[in-house]
Amino acid sequence: MQTKTLLVSSLLLIGGVSTPLLAQNYADGIEYFKSGQPDRAKIILERTLNDAETNKTESYYYLGEIAFPTSKDSALMYYELGITEDPLFPLNYIGRGKVAMGKPAANDEKSVKAAIKAGDKMMKEAFKIKGAKKDPAVALAYLKAYHDNVLPFEEIKDKYYESHLADYAPYYVFLGDIEAAKENWGDACKNYELAFDWYDTACVEAYIKYAGIYFHIRPDMAIDKVLKLLAMRPTSAIAQRELAESYYRADQFNNAVTAYEVYMANPNAFVTDRPRYAALLYYDKRYDESLDLTEELLKSFPDNLMLKRLAMYNNYEIKDYTAALKAADAFFSTPDAEFNSRDYVQYGKLCLETGRINEGLDALEKAIEIDPTRLENYKELTNALSKNGRYLRRAEVNEKYINQLEALEQAKTQDYFVGGRYYYMAASRAFQNNEQTETAFAAAKADSLFAIVVEKAPEDYRGHMWRATSSALLDPERKTGVAIPFYEKTIEVILNDLNNTETPPSAAVTARLQKDLIDAYTYMANFDYMAEYNKYLTLPEEQKATFRFTKTIDWCNKILAIDPNHEATKEFLAIISQ
Q1: What does the radius of gyration of the chain's CA atoms come to, in whole angstroms?
Q2: Which domain holds residue 551?
């Protein structure tokens, strides 16, 4: 393994990316809150609260806003702290009144009205502060106080729209949020567009919320919006993170890694995002770098499931199987953890590489059990079963794969053909081992799948031929003739193809058709020879001398008409013609 990269504890990862030097800033927390991510906002606001450049009264206001939906008492505490910090900051008066408005003394109508009136009076104290009457942020906070308490706000909106809100971008974000809450995604996006196209070209929350919705419709357009925002706000932590996440969700792992390198250099990057960055390095096939970061992070977060997973994955990819097995033991022993199908695929491949065959196959089986809709898992298991001689189980797993394709209405004729071939190979192996029950089972399953091929493509001789071939295993002594109808149909379709004057087959196709036609004639010759030979054995001695294997000779002549130099047929014909 390459020499491990030294990682500084703050993980200011350069990686060839030029990033401006940033300072922790409480404004990033406000942007996270306005963009609909209150949990992240709280972390930043709390850890920057005592920084010299922080406006503490503003931070207290937003901490109150974050607390309001779950704890009005906590929200009131923050608003009061904000007022104490700066009595001339109007928004905390709005917050204090909002809490009072939503806390009536009782549930009767009179108490509710009294609380609304008292809260409204408290909020109007904000407008008495110098400059507040003309501040659209105060008007919008007043409007939202009614909305947040689930009270009618249309009258207030009408009162302040023309004078304060008409040209104020956050107002349109507020309208977009209302529509988004009702899952009216189109109307929500229209309002977010109004915010950043008409009223504030650098309105962070409008871009982030718009991109969050649009990503599910047009990922490229969502990414373009975040890139546009970053061009104007290159140090915005949330914009940096959203770009990295957008690339990640769009499976653009190389771009995601680059974007995460920029974001991780931001002091307001979250510790919880560092494992994601390690995962992105893995997806970008930078396994050594991913492992370096994973091992560094595991020192601080030894119980992090994603990091333990990455330790197993990365060690497998760099072929350090001993370390990978050790990491796998740690990973799968994690208490109360939920493992996904890919975990078991990775573990299964690891076990197979290290000779733990049964354990590896069991893990791949487990992966399908966990997520039967993940089609690539069937391929992993069928390949492993084939390499280890488990032909019947391979056929059974492949049949489950076909069932999934049918459920998705994606099954093609070729899928049934491959499935039939798998069962035929299992039947052939069982026949060689004299396992009659397994032979009969697998041959019958093969025939049923080839029957579907015939139904879907009756003009293709191969379906008929493989029905004949698989049925022949059920009649090894050529007694019942169960395969005969299928061989006859094979011959009929091949002759039609060879004699097609409208679209004659190419030389290569002709050669293949003739080869398979010879195989069909050979089976028919052998079958009729057995029947004629048994008849020959019952004849009186005086009649045996004149007995002719008429049908058998006829089939041999058909073979020689195609290939006059077919030595096996010439020799056989010479013997039975004596």
Answers
A1: 38
A2: 512-578
User: What is the pTM (predicted TM-score) of this model?
Assistant: 0.72
What separation in angstroms does the CA of 226 have from each of 252, 302, 342?
A: 15, 34, 31
Provide the Cα torsion 41, 45, 46, 47; round to 10°: 100
Q: What is the pLDDT of residues 59-106, one digit of tens each?
A: 999 999 999 999 999 999 999 999 999 999 999 999 999 999 988 878
Helix or strand holding residue 37 (H, E): none
Residue 429, Cβ density class (10 Å: 0-12 exposed, 13-18 middle, ≥19 buried): middle
Residue 426 lies in a domain: no
Query: Per-residue pLDDT tens for 338-370?
Result: 999 999 999 999 999 999 999 999 999 999 999
What number of other Cβ atoms are within 10 A of residue 321's Cβ? 16
3-class DSSP assignment, residue 481: coil
| DSSP-derived 3-state class of residue 141 | helix
Q: Are 545 and 578 in contact (CB under 8 A)?
A: no
What is d(CA 454, CA 465) in angstroms, rounded to the nearest whole number? 10
Q: What is the DSSP string of 164-218?
A: IITT-HHHHHHHHHHHHHTT-HHHHHHHHHHIIIII-TT-HHHHHHHHHHHTTT-
From CA 50, how far away is CA 24, in angstroms rounded?
11
**For residue 560, is it within any domain?**
yes
Rounded distance between C-alpha atoms, residue 573 and residue 578, angstroms: 9
Total count of domains within the chain? 1
In a domain, 519, yes or no: yes
Residue ranges, the chain, pLDDT below 70: 1-24
Assess contact for 126 and 91: CB atoms under 8 A.
yes
**Nearest 10 degrees: CA dihedral of 442, 443, 445, 449?**
130
